[in-house]
């Protein structure tokens, strides 16, 4: 069996190892996530120095080791220097890297994920530095695509309860739909109200049966509690247990915000760029709000926080409104 193998990968994480080495976490097309040593990468004039930087794509020759494999040769085929020269782009790139690290598999080909990440990093690098809202919008678009590839994209075209299509009503300034992270996306408020009404009727009917059977008082609506999964659960008696699934709304979104969410499924950014120029979109609120919704959804379904989002928030908050 050969003691060496070839792979094409992009560096997602780097940390010092020993006196002069680096330990790299790399997303490869052929083997998914791998952790390898770049020997002497921290030495001055090392051939692996620049090739071990973040978001550098290399063709690698790797030697198998007892505990950790080692890079013996590396040839750079793509890099994104523009990302490290702009704090907003760097924070957005690290945000995407965290998502990829959370969903990528090891010892399995990850060609689709590899290509999708490279495509969105390339798009981020090519963006102008101002307005910064462009970076936030393109980051949101990339997050949506990564969620789609993982099979956990939020439902934004139809109501999660009724399955009916949702069409933004721009003529009604008070038009809203709900967004429920545990339920998986958008929720029609009218469908939610019907479900709540049915749940209350069911509770009262069951309470009547219990009272007639001498099992105690009818449970009131105030006795309902939220479960960990975001579902309203009725308090149980010694002889009765019932759960009525009613999604908890994390927020409500207006017609413009729903329109932005629905456009994120597009493969190209032409429609998205048109929306950025739309006078009805408030750049300093709408895109921030959409990113926050998707961030909360992503963290819930991936089961971990996105730490780079803190840097993104700090950077965006430090900018004057004119730069946004």
Describe the structure.
- The chain has helices at 81-84, 87-103, 111-126, 133-150, 189-212, 255-263, 270-276, 286-302, 308-318, and strands at residues 4-17, 21-28, 32-38, 57-63, 69-78, 177-180, 185-187, 225-226, 231-233, 243-247, 251-253.
- The chain is of the alpha+beta class and 324 residues long.
- The chain folds into 3 domains: 4-79, Nucleic acid-binding proteins (OB fold (Dihydrolipoamide Acetyltransferase, E2P), Beta Barrel), CATH 2.40.50.140; 87-153 and 265-323; 185-247, no CATH class.
- The strands form 3 sheets. Strands 1-2-3-5-4 form a 5-stranded mixed β-barrel. The protein has a 3-stranded antiparallel sheet with strand order 7-6-11.
- It is elongated and about 75 Å long.
- 33% of the residues are buried.
- Mean pLDDT is 85; it is low at 215-244.
Count of structural domains: 3
Beta-strand content estimate: 15-25%
Q: Give the CA-based shape.
A: elongated
Low-confidence stretches: 215-244
Q: Compute the number of strand runs.
A: 11
Radius of gyration: 25 Å
> Strand order within the widest sheet?
1-2-3-5-4
Mean pLDDT: 85
Can you describe this structure in just a few lines?
The protein has 324 residues and is an alpha+beta fold. It contains nine helices and eleven strands.
């Amino acid at each position: 069996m050969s003691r060496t193998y070839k792979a094409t990968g992009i560096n997602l994480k780097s940390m010092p190892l020993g006196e002069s080495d680096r330990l790299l976490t790399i997303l490869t097309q052929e083997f998914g996530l791998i952790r390898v040593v770049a020997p002497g990468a921290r030495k001055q004039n090392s051939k692996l120095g620049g090739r071990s930087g973040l978001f550098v794509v290399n063709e690698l020759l790797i030697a198998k080791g007892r505990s950790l494999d080692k890079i013996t040769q590396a040839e750079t085929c793509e890099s994104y220097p523009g990302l490290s020269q702009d704090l907003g782009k760097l924070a957005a790139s690290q945000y995407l890297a965290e998502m990829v690290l959370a969903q990528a598999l090891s010892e399995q080909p990850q060609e689709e994920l590899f290509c999708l990440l490279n495509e969105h990093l390339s798009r981020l690098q090519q963006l102008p530095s101002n307005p910064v809202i462009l970076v936030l919008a393109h980051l949101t678009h990339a997050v949506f695509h990564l969620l789609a590839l993982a099979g956990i994209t939020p439902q934004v075209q139809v109501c999660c309860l009724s399955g009916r299509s949702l069409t933004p009503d721009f003529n009604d300034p008070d038009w809203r739909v709900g967004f429920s992270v545990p339920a998986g996306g958008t929720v029609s408020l009218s469908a939610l109200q019907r479900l709540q009404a049915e749940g209350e009727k069911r509770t009262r009917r069951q309470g009547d049966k219990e009272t007639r059977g001498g099992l105690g008082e009818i449970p009131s609506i105030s006795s309902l509690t939220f479960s960990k999964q975001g579902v309203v659960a009725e308090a149980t008696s010694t002889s009765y247990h019932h759960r009525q699934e009613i999604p908890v709304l994390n927020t409500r979104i207006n017609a413009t915000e729903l329109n932005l969410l629905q456009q994120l499924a597009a493969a190209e950014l032409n429609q998205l760029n048109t929306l950025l120029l739309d006078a009805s979109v408030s750049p300093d609120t709408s895109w921030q709000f959409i990113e926050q919704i998707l961030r909360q959804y992503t963290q819930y379904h991936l089961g971990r926080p996105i730490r780079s989002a803190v840097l993104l928030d700090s950077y965006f908050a430090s900018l004057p409104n004119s730069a946004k």
